[in-house]
Amino acid sequence: MAQRIHLAAILEREGKLLLLREAGEPGWSLPGGDLLPEHADVDVGMAAILGEMGITVEGIEEAFYETLFIPTAEGHTVFNLFATSAWEGEPAVGDAVEVAWTEAGALADLPMDEHVRAGVLAAFGLAEPRDDSTAILEALQQEMGVEAEDAGGGPFASRREAGRDVLRTLSGGGDPDVRHAGLRGNSPELADAVVDFALGEVWGTDRLDRRTRSLEVVAMLAALTGRPNQLRSHINGALNHGATPEEVIETLRMVAVYAGFPAALTAWPVMEEVFAERGVPRPERPS
Questions:
Q1: Tens of pLDDT along 51-61?
Q2: Could you tell me the CA-to-CA distances from 243 to 114, 250, 251 in Å, in that order?
Q3: Distances in Å between the alpha carbon of 227 and those of 20, 82, 108, 233, 280?
Q4: pLDDT tens profile 228-285
Q5: Using CA atoms, how far apart are residues 157 and 6, in angstroms rounded to an integer?
Q6: Where are the alpha helices (DSSP H) in the chain?
Q7: How far apart, in whole angstroms, are the C-alpha atoms of residue 183 and residue 220?
Q8: Coil, strand or helix: which one is 21?
Q9: Are strands 2-13 and 32-34 parallel, antiparallel or unpaired?
C-alpha cells in the first residue's frame, strides 16, 4: 500500500480562505505540497512550502490542526492540515495556477476533494469532524488479508480472543467482557475493529512484548500531539504492562530529540498527571 504525505494550510484573510487550482484541474485545493526528504518534520516542511510562496506563518508548530487519511488508487494520502490566521506576505504562484479567496460556507458548491472539504468545514465549525477510522482499519485489514475471526496464533484461538486479552492488560486487568462492552459503549461502530485488528492482529503477536509496544505507542502519540486523552490512556497502559516511570520519562526524552521539544513539552504534563493520579513517586531528574 503506497503512502503519500501531503501538507496543506488553511490561510484566512478577512473571513475568506485561499484556494488554488492548477490549469486543467477541475478541483480546488489548499496551498501546500508533499513532505520531502529534506524536510526535518512536517512543521519545517509546511514552513518551507509556504515560504516558497512568499508566505510566513507565525508559530507554525502551533498551527497544526488535523491529519486526514485520503484513500487513493495506489494506497492513501496522509494529509496534514494546518490552520492559522497569523501569517504575512502575498501568495506568489505560477501563471498556470488560478487563485481564489472564498468564504468557507461556499465550499459546498465548489469541486474539491470531499475529505479536504470536510476537514476545512470542521475547522471553521461548519461541520462535525469526519471520522474515517473504520474505513482506514478496514482498508488495512483488506491489504493484509486479515479476517477478524481468523486464528491469531500463539496461545489464543482467534484475533478476537487475543485482542480482548490485550484490552484487559492495557486497562490494568478486569473482566475482558466488561472492558469490551465499555469500548463498544464509547465507540460502537469502531470497537470490534479495534479489538480484532489493532489489538488482536497487531498487538496480539509475541514478536514484541506488550511493555515495549506500550512505550512505542506513548512515543508515537506524544510525537503526533493534540491527543492528550489517548496519550493518557497509553501512559497508563505502559505502566500496567510493567514499564517503569523512568522508562516513560526516557521515552518522552527521545520524543524531544526526534519529534521536537514542543511535542515533548506538550506530552510532559499529561505524563505528570498520570503519575500523580496513580501515586507514582516522581523519579529523580537526571543530573
A1: 999 999 888 88
A2: 42, 11, 11
A3: 30, 16, 29, 10, 22
A4: 999 999 999 999 999 999 999 999 999 999 999 989 999 999 999 999 999 988 776 6
A5: 40
A6: 42-52, 114-123, 133-144, 159-170, 176-186, 191-193, 210-224, 228-240, 245-259, 261-278
A7: 22
A8: strand
A9: antiparallel
